DNA sequence: TTGTAGGCGTTATCAT
DNA sequence: ATGATAACGCCTACAA
């Protein structure tokens, strides 16, 4: 019973092995509580069973849901998912990419959007190309300026739909709280808002600077209240911001939704907590799709996969109300 | 210029190397965009720069904050943090532990509490011991029945303090919504609640089954309302549950805090969104402490480290009010 | 069907 | 100060 034979049965090689020896090997492995070294295996195979998920912020429920999607399907196949926090810095993404490359990750998932005019964009594109050449599958879950599989939702349409819905409630003065400057997702959603406003014959210029976090929304609420008469409604670039706005308004004794309606985008868990009107984005599914793509490619040959666009859905809840007239 | 020499300068060995050759190696490495294989290195050193964080639920903000703490300090030192989701199943923890062992993780952090009378407890203790012997540092951030470094907060006291505070507001009928059955943290907090109630001369038996998630709180709210006259206040085993209760109550047109006061424990991000009265638990710091312990041990020798108890702090906000009399 | 030899990319040991 | 050589634990030809 040689090492080779043992290796063959333990790693499911298709090389023929007699039933008796197979059984003996299995028995011995069980007996010794033997586990093959993932390290050595990855070293020779040039491919580990690690999947990296690079997120913009580990505490953001948006990314948590995506990570869960990846982890669920990857874990079922014996893959290890590592969630890497980049704090929305391209340089941090670069560093994580480096490490992931060092471990010959089977794939890496870019969960967050890229920046327009990113000064490290070239470097990143280069690193991604390098990674792909080495056999890792990379997939992006939002707009990115490098070549890879994209699985996304239509952010422009999502913002359009929620804005259109709010307008349909009879609101005229509708404000928008923007996301982080330069991020594609921010721009896409703002554009969607503006398009919907124009199509409804409303003024699309009531935009406030924001971010993706609760605090950004809270601060925006302060500026909104200082900027003149209250708007009829405000659409946040995402749920956290919308909740932050609501929190700021309510603290100032503004009644939501009686005085001001509020809506977000994403339908993350906190949105359900506060019964926020929003648009549901299939976050979990986005992650699952990414994981499946990686598993498919690392199993079979490198057959190229088609990009995918997942559907979103308007989800009215209790933070919006019809405008009294 | 041999491989050996190159290796020596590239990995900061303390073996002497002349300045000239050192420079030449560095230049060549830069030139070729060379990166040492983390896999090969880990294979021979029997220690990778991977830290595993096993969490009870990846979407739970409680764990997100802890993961951030670990990731922040580990990332700064070039370590890779992998967040593994166990869905609160000991078996899943076992599986992750297996994988982490295969990759010779530098350390693993158990972020969630263990179960009393866990049927897989023995197995887990065994796996942990095995891991420790192989040189990995394991640290638990809540009560666990295996030998390892513990960095925790006093859950009993945290629950006592928040209950005591609520009672001090004049409330008499105070309900408690419990956490997952069998979990040490649940029991500790419930005990803290009961102790505070008794010390305040109040009835500590108004407990409802719950969980750690929003939905559990929401469902508990329904049962609370069906169980007779509304309580003066309710203390949730954690913030999510407290918010769920609040959501359920408000949906039934119960005014919080005018009719019922509500408080949680943990001070996770959503708690700030809704201005929940709670007790702040140093989640980020818990993770940071764990990471530092792992880094310390994998750098120097295995000097044993002392367990640590981190302080919590009462954080009154707007979901509790003094009882009208 | 089974076994042998070579190599994956490092670090560690022992010369030189 | 530098270099050859042997592991680390596995997989994949290539023989037998």
Order of helices and strands of chain A: HHHEHEHEHEEHEHEHEHEHEHEE
The CATH topology of the largest domain in chain A is what?
Rossmann fold
Low-confidence stretches of chain A: none
How large is the count of helical segments of chain A?
12
Oligomer: homodimer
Q: Greatest contact pair?
A: A-B, 49 and 49 residues
Quick one: biggest sheet of chain A? 6 strands, parallel
The end-to-end distance of chain A, rounded to whole angstroms, is 86 Å
- Per CATH, the architecture of the largest domain in chain A is 3-Layer(aba) Sandwich
CATH level 1 name of the largest domain in chain A: Alpha Beta
Helix and strand content put the structural class of chain A at alpha/beta
Radius of gyration of chain A: 24 Å
Averaged pLDDT of chain A, please? Answer: 93
Q: Could you give the order of strands across the largest sheet of chain A?
A: 2-1-3-4-5-11
**CATH homologous group name of the largest domain in chain A:** Response regulator
**Number of individual domains of chain A:** 3
What share of the residues of chain A does DSSP label as strand, in percent? 5-15%
Would you report the number of β strands of chain A? 12
Q: Which helices and strands occur, and which strands form pairs?
A:
2 copies of one chain form a homodimer.
Chain A (H helix, E strand, L loop, with lengths): L2 H8 L8 H14 L5 H8 L4 E6 L5 H16 L3 E6 L4 H13 L4 E4 L10 H13 L3 E4 L8 E5 L1 H14 L5 E4 L6 H16 L7 E2 L5 H13 L6 E4 L2 H13 L9 E3 L5 H5 L4 E3 L2 H17 L8 E3 L2 E3 L10
Parallel strand pairs in A: 1-2, 1-3, 3-4, 4-5, 5-11, 6-7, 6-8, 8-9
Antiparallel strand pairs in A: 10-12
Helix pairs in contact in A: 1-2, 4-12, 5-6, 7-8, 9-10
Chain A binds a DNA duplex (16 and 16 nucleotides) through helix 1 and helix 3.
